From TrEMBL:
Protein EC: 3.2.1.8
Active site annotation, chain numbering: E118, E212
Record PANTHER family: ENDO-1,4-BETA-XYLANASE, ENDO-1,4-BETA-XYLANASE A-RELATED
UniProt source species: Achaetomium macrosporum
Pathway named in the protein's UniProt entry: Glycan degradation; xylan degradation
Reactions the enzyme catalyzes: Endohydrolysis of (1->4)-beta-D-xylosidic linkages in xylans
Domain GH11: 34-225
Protein keywords: Carbohydrate metabolism, Glycosidase, Hydrolase, Polysaccharide degradation, Signal, Xylan degradation
Name recorded for this polypeptide: Endo-1,4-beta-xylanase
Amino acid sequence: MVSFTYLTLAALAVLGARAAPTAEPSALDLPDFDFEIGTQNVTRRQDYNQNYKTGGTVNYSPTSNGYSVTFSGAGDFVVGKGWKKGTSRTISYSGSSTRYAGTVLLSVYGWTRNPLIEYYVQEWTSNGKGSAQGTKVGTYTADGGKYELWKHQQVNQPSIAGTSTTFWQYIANRVDNKRPNSGSVNMATHFAAWKKAGLNLGTHDYQVLATEGWGGAGGNAKYTVRG
């Protein structure tokens, strides 16, 4: 059950000029891996690696069921592990993040096409806000916490469809009970809340658990992912 509080859509408040790290990453075929749900052993395929950076040093190491990354002086980067096609799956993760410089966040991150949408479910942000900017659409509760929902228009910025385009970012920022170490994100609940707020998605492209940093970011992160 989603509870949603609508806020007045005031004039657009642009909260910084940072362009989201949206260059198209590479997709790699990786072996299947097994995990257990209850007493039934099932196989899931995680075969997508997000790996983008501008400036600094970013050392990303994917595994069959997660990733690790160390970074220093990073101008802007996104790395992560997930699926070539996003869905309303529940994504569980465990691990840790350490940050000693810049801004770092942990999110479920993905894209849709037609319309072209870049989206975030920010589970932890070192500065409290992460990439949230633009217009605050409302708040809702999901996965045991409260999220603020934002939308922000990008113009002539990198995307999975190229750089000469206009598209929207949908950014859900968890503002209490932040979860840098472990959690489960029910994407169906989030997508339903966004739809209720008038934020519609298109056909799903890739979807990952991602570590992101900018502003000379330094630190490290390591996570396992399943869904």
